[in-house]
Amino acid sequence: MPKFFDEMYRDHAGSVRPHYQEFEAWLAEQACEAIAQKRAEADLVFRRVGITFAVYGNDAGTERLIPFDIIPRIIPAAEWAKLEKGLKQRVLALNMFIHDIYHEQHIVQAGVIPPEQIFRNAQYRPEMQGITVASDIYAHIAGVDIVRAGAGEFYVLEDNLRVPSGVSYMLEDRKMMMRLFPELFARHKVAPIDHYPDLLLENLRSVAPLGIADPTVVVMTPGMYNSAYFEHAFLAQQMGVELVEGKDLFVNDNAVFMRTTQGPKRVDVIYRRIDDDFLDPLAFRAGSSLGVPGLLSVYRAGRVTLANAIGTGVADDKSIYPYVPDMIRFYLSEEPILNNVPTYQCRKKEELEYTLANLAQLVVKEVHGAGGYGMLVGPAATKQQIEDFRQRVLAHPEGYIAQPTLALSACPTYVESGIAPRHIDLRPFVLSGKSMTMVPGGLTRVALTEGSLVVNSSQGGGTKDTWILEN
Amino acid sequence: MLSRTADHLFWMARYTERAENTARMLDVNMQTSLLPQSAQSAEQGWRATLSISELQHMFDHKYAVLTPRDVLDFMVRDPANPSSIASCLTQARENARAVRGSLTTEVWETLNASWLEMQPLLQGQALERDPSQFFEWVKHRSHLSRGVTIGTMLKDEAFYFIRLGTFLERADNTARLLDVKFHGAQDGMAANGTGDGAEQPLDFYYWAALLRSVSGFEIYRKVYRDVITPARVAALLMLRADMPRSLLACMDEVVANLQAVSNDMSADTERLAGKLHAQLRFARLDDILADGLHDYLTAFLEDVFELGNRVSRDFMMPLAA
Fold this sequence. Notes:
The complex is a heterodimer.
Chain A: H1 21-29, H2 32-49, E1 52-53, E2 64-65, E3 68-75, H3 77-101, H4 106-109, H5 115-119, E4 141-149, E5 153-160, H6 167-180, H7 182-187, H8 196-206, E6 217-220, H9 229-239, E7 242-244, E8 249-252, E9 255-260, E10 263-267, E11 269-272, H10 295-300, E12 305-307, H11 324-332, E13 339-340, E14 344-345, H12 349-357, E15 362-366, E16 375-377, H13 383-395, E17 400-404, E18 410-415, E19 418-427, E20 429-432, E21 436-437, E22 443-446, E23 462-468
Parallel strand pairs in A: 3-23, 5-13, 6-7, 6-11, 11-12
Antiparallel strand pairs in A: 1-2, 4-5, 4-20, 8-9, 9-10, 14-17, 15-16, 15-17, 18-19, 19-22, 20-21, 22-23
Chain B: H1 3-33, H2 39-52, H3 56-62, H4 68-76, H5 85-98, H6 105-122, H7 126-129, H8 131-152, H9 157-185, H10 201-213, H11 217-224, H12 230-239, H13 247-261, H14 267-281, H15 285-291, H16 293-316
Protein name (chain A): Circularly permuted type 2 ATP-grasp protein
Pfam family, one (chain A): CP_ATPgrasp_2
Domain Circularly permuted ATP-grasp type (chain A): 72-447
């Protein structure tokens, strides 16, 4: 494993980065037992509040907590300012891209992106072609995964434009830190994030169908057995709107209604936390009972807003990812502020050759893969695995991309053996409506196993509070 | 409010109230079983607790003979018994979880914490060693969830459906408790008597236990300042509007909360609730006893059941369009 960037320590001799000095000094004063007690308290509170995830059953054991680490990830104001600017630029371009490909397709005509990359993409939805959506916004809520690598540069790892999760943990982690260590907030100027639900509601209201003065917004969930159910319920509650399931909604007279104790009530904006495939059994997956029959026809008529829009997945795909910097140049005539991870597209002859020649150093991913499946991590693979993958890539080169193995930055983290560096990433959330807004922060995920780069909560990853320091 | 949400809130409250009532009933039976009495009458007491909840059949299906220990286990922690305290608290929590966005954080956390705390309490021998302590805990948690509901929730539909569930369930439970105790008492003493019924000390304990099960013993003393008679117990638990667990007090709340959520379909349901309320409000105990208390309570229970069904139909499963 190459040497990694440490968020707190400048070098292994222990020189502390300026924005961590105050915290480090505080930490040094703390007794081990006191910290252990605070951590136990956090677990208890998270369980009582029911901030749990994963498969749900009747036994207490099947509701799992996401481990919460009490050492915050701190980002100085200047770094955040650049990140924020870059994120807004990126999401703006992505929204313009989605609008373009479902309308005139200028970017294809200009030869920037090959048409088959878009129209043969499984996430491309022909149903969206030519449809008008409010304010031309498609990805109302984007969760962009950012990593730091090398000497500390930020890279965008993935654009999540469908139903990105994690914002509830971002907010709950902050609440927990303020509750456990109020004195820390007196010593630091940490930018507040609690107004996220207000921004979200404002954002959703701003994209209601034309002519609706006082729109009714709902959050739509697949139900309480979904792993992100806590977040769905949390957001509905924080915004003061109904949390609905498919069976609570119905379509009549070219409008969507919810069943209420006072009879049917019209719904204007649906923040849906359910995938395209399950939205409307008449249009997509027929067997699904999670959706609302007829929803698509109302949507196409512009009489209800879905956030995020149908068909946004075409833009957060690994095969489209390499083109995002070009999109920014194409639509905004600006240079991208944030870096992409260098990506080799095996569908291109030279890049395929480079990939095949360097398999042992690269991470190779399936274009449509997700959740860490169908992946080769070169440096960690056996000769046999590399050879097997070579055959797979050769048989179907357009199905693969390759990237250098990144040395993700690490942040000191409480683990069994004490405090030790663990790799982290960051997911900030960008809201797009009539305007673009963000709260200063994001969800920092941490890989709790030594050396591991896997931060996914389903694989035992934890979270940290993310502090953006104000100047 | 969403119909489904109303449904969950209603049942969340009913299950919480049911857990409390079961705890009250079992606790009282524990206390009376400590009195000197024949094995037969002791068993009768335990049988009565099963029959109040209409669980005799289910219990007999599972156990060949009746032992207090088995009844306790069955009524407290058996997951196969949908009315066991463990089942009720689990279902209350499940319903709350499904609509946690419609609850204040405090209400949700109270129900969730009850469920979490219950697990260790039911493990090991703690329940057998000190059942009363466990019942106290159940009552306390129920008080807490009711209190936190009143103390933190907006007085809107969500609140009214919760209250509706609470009082419909409580009306049902008080009526059952009365019915079984009076029914069981028919042999031993004249339940329709209006004279002093407490000649035998055991009878005194019997009625005192019934009063205690609804926190009514001290209230009885305060109201009557006299010996305990079955007729007065019945009057207190049925007709006194100021007795919080009486049928009249429950129906007061049912009528008021129903009115607060009234919709285009609910006129008949409100009429039924109003009728039940008026019957209690203007009843004379002598007339009820003359016609037969058991018949009266049986009819009342049927009406409460019908009322529950109507609430579901009018508010929780409305037609699509």
